[in-house]
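Hey,

The postdoc asked me to send both predictions to you directly instead of through the lab channel. I've kept everything plain text so nothing gets mangled by the mail client. Protein one:
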Amino acid sequence: MITDWLQGIGTILGVPGAIAAFILLFIKDKDKQSQINKLILIADELKKQTNEFELQTQQMREQNSIFKEQLDLLYSIQSGNKDQQEKLIELKKKELKSKNRPIFKWEEGNSGPKYINVKIKNVGEVARLLEFYEIGNGELIFVTPKGTEVAKNNFFQLEAEYSGKENIHNIDTLIEILLEDAVGNKYRQKFNIRGSKAEILPIEEVRDNNKD
């Protein structure tokens, strides 16, 4: 009997200690989760900055390559090679396109289960958004107005209502925008969207066979 009584007291005294240990473990887990959330935010911000740097570096490399080709052609023309003049004209056109090309990057998002709302920044030159397409099931109704003009270092909201059965955060949605730069060149820009985040795919020039 005395042994059972002592064991009972020990059990009772052990309960607060177990509860305290559980609370401490819970607090530690919350602290860890808070730290993980902070690291995720930092990683997202570093990814945005890295993507922007890569886009700008790619544009600089392209312009440097064009400049080098121009110098080589000018030297060839001055040396008496007249056949290079046409190539120089083409390079000038290429340079003009490169200098006026829009460059987009994902900034942030606030999408819900049945709508897309992501903020996109244009770090390149001015762009006019002509048409919006969903590449897939056609379950989006676009809200962003056609003809929206996005200046350099400005933003636009890519918004669309979703009529599908899935939660928009659980699926990948491919959106394409037909756009035009300041000098009339047209491009197709694709965005792979999952929830509030957007992966921006390489921009594609729309070739116009009627142009010289």
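Protein two:
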Amino acid sequence: MSHAGIAKWLSGPEFARRYRGVAPLPREMRRSALPTGTAMLREAVGILPAHLRRAMRTKCRILLLSGYTIGKLRHDRPEISPGHFVLVQRILDGRHIYADGARHFTGFARDDDGNWWTAVWKKTRDGREVFLETFHRGGIKGRLRDAESLSKKKGAPAGSASSPAGPSPIRPK
């Protein structure tokens, strides 16, 4: 699958139909059994660039969106439409990506209107798959401000190895 293929898929009617076909999942239902078919639903929403795959230590090329996460987003973020998911690839290809430990990663990018968007994804324990955990508008300014304030309290510069608030930036070579 190519970047153009992902963009076409995410902006097409079939992805929109599948996205809207998952019922919103309220918090109180998230620990119980998922609606039939929701758990098995997996949709491609991005292609992981080579430098990101190396940093994540995975061979997986495709970022997946699970039915569970769709249900969470439909409940918690009803303003997100299926068409917004084309921004996920912009985030993956961008320069604002940070490792939050060994398995979790966060990225930020601006849309055409200048609004920041945030995506958080993680790889499975065996590293064979990578799933989008959340996706929403907003993000980087508050995150950088929080990192700076925590690093001042600890006396370490933001982004340093000794700073608990300093996520490790991932940059293409």
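Summary for protein two, as requested: Residues 82 and 153 are 40 Å apart (CA to CA).

Thanks,
C.
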